[in-house]
Amino acid sequence: MRKILTLLIVFFVLFSCKNEKNESEISEKSPQIEQYPTPNFGIVIHGGAGTILKKNMSDSLENVYKLKLEEAIKTGHDILKNGGTAMEAVTKTINVMENSSLFNAGKGAVFTHEETNELDASVMDGATLNAGAVAGVTHIKNPIDLALAVMNNSPHVLLSGQGAERFAKEQGFEMMDPSYFYTEKRFQSLQRIKEKEKTELDHDSKVSFAEDPFIKDSKFGTVGCAALDKNGNLAAGTSTGGMTNKRWNRIGDAPIIGAGTYANNATCAVSSTGWGEYFIRGMVAHDISAMMEYKGVTLQEAAEEVIQEKLPNLGGDGGIVAIDKDGNVSMEFNTAGMYRATMNAEGDLKIGIYNE
Ligand code: ASP
């Protein structure tokens, strides 16, 4: 009997100790769970900045733009939600806009003075500071994919013209017939600019053709994307047909790392749109990152200073979209409008066109 009683006591003591341990395990674990918050991620895109005014836009066209922006951003958001990389989200999102004639990139690229289409694009990976870019390609359906191939599969950062296309062939890219890039709207924009240029030369006009709102608008329409993935990596990319009526194999800011595109895990990822010459001179995308790094300002403060002060002081206009390492987003522009959209980890979607 005594033995049984002793056994019962030992069993009881052991059991209560185990329970205590479980409780203490739980109470120790609980705060640890809070130390691992849901991974943050986010994405932001632009479809170009310019003289985009509500009075010049029909409700149906506005809707068409909004639907395409939504389709593009949801493509990238789904990739991020499922654990994909920021770079994959950026390139696949840009593909949607490159394949649409609505934007000045890929299919909808503007015309050069010689009535050809020359496309520029770049990508940058914020984790490695690796980058790839192409300029002046004329047969590539999705220049952003070729920029990625330059980053991943070549020892170089920026390839141009025929050399870039030889590389594309070696990489197995499909070569498009240049007629793929013909759109009536872009062709008419070029004719209108040429006509205006001619008239001004004939009449020795004092008003610069660059001030004509139609012409100013037809300069823009580049597409770009910046994303933060669940692993805390940032990436950015930009793709464009450049500026209508460009000559002499002009290259804009879109394929210039630091001007049109920049990403650094320590700060932010940025994609630019606007008058490329000024974005190159201002090194706009890198300047925003550098201000965060060296001055310790927030992404929004840096973007505002660069886009609302430094860029206009040079004489340039346009905008940027950017996301920082914590998922904060900036969509800053100094033009009448900028096609733009953003989505956060919770799936909240914001789409904008005008300055509102
Ligand atoms: N930044 C582009 C360029 O200058 C134009 C644009 O943003 O639409 O080539």
Automatic annotation (TrEMBL):
Species this protein is from: Marixanthomonas spongiae
PANTHER family referenced in this protein's UniProt entry, alphabetically: L-ASPARAGINASE, N(4)-(BETA-N-ACETYLGLUCOSAMINYL)-L-ASPARAGINASE
Protein name: Isoaspartyl peptidase
Residues the record marks as active site: 222 (nucleophile)
Superkingdom, taxonomy of origin: Bacteria
Xref: InterPro entries: Ntn_hydrolases_N, Peptidase_T2
Keywords: Autocatalytic cleavage, Hydrolase, Protease
Binding site for substrate: 250-253, 273-276
GO biological process: proteolysis
Keyword Hydrolase included in the entry's annotation: yes
Coiled coil: none
Site (Cleavage): 221-222
Gene Ontology MF terms: hydrolase activity, acting on carbon-nitrogen (but not peptide) bonds, in linear amides; peptidase activity
